[in-house]
Amino acid sequence: MTAAALDVRGLVKRYDGRAVVDDLSFVVRPGTVLALLGPNGAGKTTTVEICQGFRSADAGTVEVLGRPPRDPALRPRVGVMPQTGGAYPGLRCGEMLRLVASYAAAPLEPGDLLERLGLTPVARTAYRRLSGGQQQRLSLALAVVGRPELVFLDEPTAGLDPQARHATWELVEALRRDGVTVVLTTHLLDEAERLADDVVVIDHGRVVAAGTVAELTSSGAVGQLRFRSRPELDLDQLLAALPVGCTAKESPAGQYLVEAPGDVDPQLLAAVTAWCATNDAMAADLRVEQRSLEDVFLELTGRELRA
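The structure assignment produced for this chain is given below.
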């Protein structure tokens, strides 16, 4: 096993003189899931296609399992799930999966994979007649059936219903348990929070943040305490009862947010509940929150993920 499953250094790609990938660097640790996030036009797809060997770089280096992306020796070791396509339109779902499995030395059992992804009922249906979600799940199956060491998944749950989405998450988690490295692009931030060991956020072709989900959400975070009560509580009185540096606001009516300069500790929680009790205010739906990955993403890019 190489020191890095994927090593991208100083990557540059230009179109018509404009750099869509601009001195991009990141490393993917073996046996982990990395989520590559960024608004549309940030350079995600171009970066992944260079890593997959489908495009050439103008500058910089990429090593995939210690080799150049276009090295033929990588073909049995790397799985690719494109966002669309990847199958012969006339072949039946099960036939397509068995065909790809036949190229691998020790493939996963196609029937088990069909069952796991809910495709057994359509195993005899031609690819072109599958629904969009079924085609998406088959594309995922084709990417992993050969037991790759590294797999690229491009928005694997796009357009899937909740049940299929959770089945896909479970498959990705199983891949990680088996030591497979996964590079995941997704527009679903809750998906990245659940699956990713590491996150790289790119914008305008550059890395703007990188780290674990915990590292990104805790950096510069404030503790948040939310509760519901009767409208128009006296917030000045509430603030006087709280530690210095806390803020409080009501928005919308009857819903309150208390923010602390650090983590919410038991003393702050006790202070809020004691103040509510003293003022005959029921603190309902009391919960402690931290910044989400979406908060971090918007702070870094100023844009929605699908902007």
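Interim note for the steering committee: The CA atoms of residues 185 and 305 lie 11 Å apart. The chain has a mean pLDDT of 91.
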